Amino acid sequence: MIANELSRRLADLFRADRSAYRPCDGGGQKVHTDVEGNPLTQFHEYFHGDNGRGLGACHQTGWTALVIRCIETAARLKRS
Known about the structure:
Blueprint: H1 2-12, E1 46-47, E2 54-55, H2 67-79
Antiparallel strand pairs: 1-2
């Protein structure tokens, strides 16, 4: 289904690989963490079409928080 594929692709922008790199962080830097080692995620205004790097503002961009729903959906589909 197209909606499931789009959800998976959007969620993949925020998924770290084995080296702890995420496309939304530019792929060249490890996942940012807080002082306790918890991962921090910035939800950018838009993303580069080829490499997924987050671009533009990373404040007041609540629309990209919908990725949480996409990750939940992808996880649910993976379990079934």
